[in-house]
Amino acid sequence: MSQDKRSRSSKLADTLGSDVDFVLFGALGDLSQRKLYPALYQLDRENLLADNTRLLGVARQEVDVEGFRSRVEASLKEYIKRDELDAEVVERFLNRLDYRCVDATQVEGYAGIREWRQGAGDRPMVVYLAVGASLYGDICRHLEDSGSLDESARVVVEKPIGHDLESSDEINDAIGAVFPESRIYRIDHYLGKETVQNLIALRFANPLFGTQWNQNHISHVEITVAEKVGIEGRWGYFDQAGQLRDMVQNHLLQLVCLIAMDPPANLDADAIRDEKVKVLKALKPFTDDMLGTDVVRGQYIAGTSDGQSVPGYLEEPDANTASHTETFVAMKTEVSNWRWAGVPFYLRTGKRMPEKLSQIVIHFRQQPHYIFDPDQRSLAANKLVIRLQPDEGIALQVLTKDSGLDKGMRLRPGPLHLDFNNAFAKTRIPDAYERLLLEVMKGQQYLFVRRDEVEHAWKWCDSLIEAWQERDEPPRRYPSGSWGPVASIAMISQDGRSWYEDY
Ligand SMILES: NC(=O)C1=CN([C@@H]2O[C@H](COP(=O)(O)OP(=O)(O)OC[C@H]3O[C@@H](n4cnc5c(N)ncnc54)[C@H](OP(=O)(O)O)[C@@H]3O)[C@@H](O)[C@H]2O)C=CC1
Ligand SMILES: O=C1O[C@H](COP(=O)(O)O)[C@@H](O)[C@H](O)[C@H]1O
């Protein structure tokens, strides 16, 4: 066996161990092209796809296998950096692909999928639903009725699952009628981000933080997920959803869970998910009287992005000019339990902000007795800044003595800084979908969302949506390229605080 082959085999034994048959519904859609093929290619390049792993693309368009492979090759060329495109790996990857034209709503077409699976032996089947959630029920049922499934089959579903608790229950029931929970992988791609997983390591591997992580030592928590992009031509989807359903119900609440949860007994999927559910259950529900003080909804108007003029939300292609859908939301919430009582969690997320920035800031309390210059009192607290993207890293703001003979005991804030790109320079930070696809192939569920998590997240969001609907107020306008409505600054400053924008 060559050295190369040997290292490939041992890597597989550590990570993957078996071949998989992917059946990808929505094989010609945006998600597949932008995220899934590039992620699978990267896994192949890293020798993490076992030799006989195959993928069957499924969509309604009439394309032959060669045409399908050319489309996938074009996606790789568009979304993979040039120096990461290896012709040999591209060819190996494309040879794994096959295609069937199937209308997912018609059971007749599924015979093609069943035939493709014949002779698969004990190779597990992973059905990936990169289609709208309204098709999930039909697809699961038809896969079963056509005899295409076996005990090995896992299903991967994308967010959003429904638009409220009731509709998510219907979708989850339809999937659950065919697949047991242990074989359902609900994606929240934020859980696949390297820095998001790092929250678990940071909190539970460092006693320094473990002992301080509660209302005795932390005064408040900020989570910002700012996007520079607008709605990217997705008016039809986005206008029905809005930023609360698109980003808060899933990604931001998962971040809240990872920050607020108690230590799990171990790293098993259910141990982690049990703790996350406790956080979701403890979130303080919204009532009408909190809308004026604790929540701000915004919608972007025309402005600039990277120095270029960009249209407002209501001027986007296909826009309905009467829409009150929010593209920004800021809120103050609380996890009402022993650990976090009285600690506000300030969340904000919006589209068309000045930059792409996802970061969590943990603000520690001040010392009980302050002995330095009274003018510097506002400096005297530590902050832990966890930068999720871009420029992934962690910075702990500490206070030291300012140097110089004339400075006396003046304080100077400065970061103890861990920049992931510098610290781990030789390691490429993988895209979230690479990690998630790998975990699906390994049959591990800890990075996927369990049904009760989805339900409790919806229950909390529904309380806010109902309060909004009763008030029926238009969102506040904010210019593209700004940090959202001024009211979101007022919301936090009423507590004597401000959004943290340094790093
Ligand atoms: N795009 C993204 O960045 C993200 C997407 N998602 C979710 O992923 C899913 C897919 O999104 P996206 O890729 O953007 O959607 P697209 O509209 O770009 O793609 C949908 C795909 O589904 C296929 N399709 C639609 N109807 C049928 C049918 N009846 N039978 C078989 N195939 C069908 C389409 O092909 P054809 O018309 O040929 O049948 C196409 O390949 C959605 O649930 C979305 O919410 C989640 C996070 C991010
Ligand atoms: O799920 C979604 O996420 C993206 C933001 O993801 P990121 O990895 O770029 O932070 C968001 O733009 C999209 O509207 C939403 O559906």
From TrEMBL:
Keyword hit for Nuclease: no
Q: Quote the record's binding site residues for NADP(+).
A: 60, 159
Catalytic residues identified in the record? 251 (proton acceptor)
Extract the PROSITE patterns matched here.
G6P_DEHYDROGENASE
Q: Which SUPFAM superfamilies match?
A: Glyceraldehyde-3-phosphate dehydrogenase-like, C-terminal domain, NAD(P)-binding Rossmann-fold domains
Pathway given for this chain reads:
Carbohydrate degradation; pentose phosphate pathway; D-ribulose 5-phosphate from D-glucose 6-phosphate (oxidative stage): step 1/3
GO molecular function per UniProt: glucose-6-phosphate dehydrogenase activity; NADP binding
List each copy of the Glucose-6-phosphate dehydrogenase NAD-binding domain by range: 23-198
Reactions performed catalytically? D-glucose 6-phosphate + NADP(+) = 6-phospho-D-glucono-1,5-lactone + NADPH + H(+)
Protein's GO biological process: glucose metabolic process; pentose-phosphate shunt, oxidative branch
Q: Which domain of life is it from?
A: Bacteria
Binding-site list for substrate: 189, 193, 227, 246, 351, 356
Under Enzyme Commission nomenclature, its number is: 1.1.1.49
Please indicate if the UniProt record lists Chloroplast as a keyword: no
Residue ranges of the Glucose-6-phosphate dehydrogenase C-terminal domain?
Answer: 201-499
EC class of the enzyme, as a word: oxidoreductase
The entry's keywords:
Carbohydrate metabolism, Glucose metabolism, NADP, Oxidoreductase
Q: Which GO terms describe its cellular component?
A: cytosol
Database matches in PANTHER family = GLUCOSE-6-PHOSPHATE 1-DEHYDROGENASE, GLUCOSE-6-PHOSPHATE 1-DEHYDROGENASE G6PD
What HAMAP family does the annotation carry?
G6PD (MF_00966)
Tell me its family.
Belongs to the glucose-6-phosphate dehydrogenase family.
Job of this protein: Catalyzes the oxidation of glucose 6-phosphate to 6-phosphogluconolactone.
Q: What is this protein called?
A: Glucose-6-phosphate 1-dehydrogenase
Name the species this protein comes from: Halomonas halmophila
